[in-house]
Specification:
Alpha-lytic protease prodomain-like, mainly alpha, single chain, about 10% strand, Alpha-Beta Plaits, about 300 residues, 2 domains, elongated
């Protein structure tokens, strides 16, 4: 159900970006504003990124199969990296277009249309990105979150272009147009770097954030009186899915069924704290030399000897 919701809102992102690309490029060409054209190129990159997000979210929702035992979540991480690289390319095009205008001092011929489309762009992108952030948080979708950040970056850059056009109108200094375009490019490069790094981190199985690891430990220690210790705790993320495994040391005389039931209890606790988690616990018997714990007797079996 969550994946279906992500796909639905990914479609909205495609539609809004397509509309803004047409408006910005058309108005930028008519007015001669390089900063408006730059914003159009930015939205074009975001349109491609939204399409990639849509495809990745749809694929990641597929169940595990014979060729993908851990599911298809990595497609979302690949999408995040691809989106970041596309945005880097878009920033390069903007810089290529803005630098000659900065040298020549040539600015937009008319401002009214540019002001209007930038204001509209900021409002549309803010509304869509706010919804995407909400759905990304609910579904824990990294691809949808990356798309939301793209659109939120558009909000700030569109507002910056709008401010540049206002400055031109007030001062008559056309140089503000390419200057603002270069500032837009800087914002885009920063966003692209962060998105690419985050996508790469999960591709190489970086561990979960510290606050999530603490939740896992707290769930385990909630039943600390009923086991001896745990170790070899490992965790990673694949798209919206988390994979967690650990070793749990149990009384050596505990029955197989009781040991299994106890491990299932802890797995359920972790999965309740961190949805979309798959937990695997390897139960180990305590050492023959352990010092007479009473855990086994309390759980219905003989005490350790």
């Amino acid at each position: 159900m969550h994946n279906g919701k992500s796909v639905k809102w990914a479609r909205l992102s495609i539609a809004s970006n397509a509309l803004l690309v047409i408006l910005k490029v058309t108005v930028g060409s008519l007015t001669g504003s390089v900063s408006v054209v730059a914003e159009g190129l930015h939205s074009a990159a975001d349109l491609v990124a939204s399409i990639i997000t849509f495809v990745a979210v749809k694929i990641s929702g597929r169940q595990a199969d014979e060729d993908h035992h851990f599911g298809h979540g990595k497609y979302e991480n690949i999408a995040g990296m691809a989106e970041g690289l596309l945005i880097f390319a878009g920033a390069g095009v903007i810089i290529h277009e803005a630098l000659p205008k900065l040298v020549s001092g040539k600015g937009p011929e008319t401002l009214g249309l540019g002001l209007g489309v930038m204001a509209l762009s900021s409002l549309v992108n803010y509304a869509v990105s706010a919804k995407l952030f909400s759905v990304a948080k609910e579904t824990d979708s990294p691809a949808l979150s990356a798309d939301a950040w793209h659109l939120r970056t558009d909000v700030y850059t569109s507002a910056g272009v709008l401010g540049g056009l206002v400055l031109i109108k007030l001062t008559g200094m056309a140089i503000f147009d390419p200057l603002v375009a270069l500032v837009v490019a800087a914002f885009i490069i920063k966003a692209a770097y962060e998105i690419t790094v985050e996508g790469f981190a999960h591709m190489v199985d970086v561990t979960l954030p510290e606050h999530e690891m603490e939740k896992i430990k707290a769930s385990i220690l909630k039943h600390g009186e009923d086991f001896l210790e745990f170790h070899e705790l490992r965790a990673r993320k694949s798209g919206p899915q988390r994979f967690i495994d650990l070793h749990l040391v149990m009384p050596k005389d505990m029955s197989l069924k009781k040991s299994h039931d106890f491990c299932t209890l802890i797995e359920s606790e972790i999965e309740r704290e961190l949805p979309n988690s798959h937990v695997l616990i390897h139960a180990e018997p305590c050492e023959p030399t352990c010092e007479g714990c009473k855990i086994g007797a309390r759980l219905g079996g003989p005490p350790c000897e």
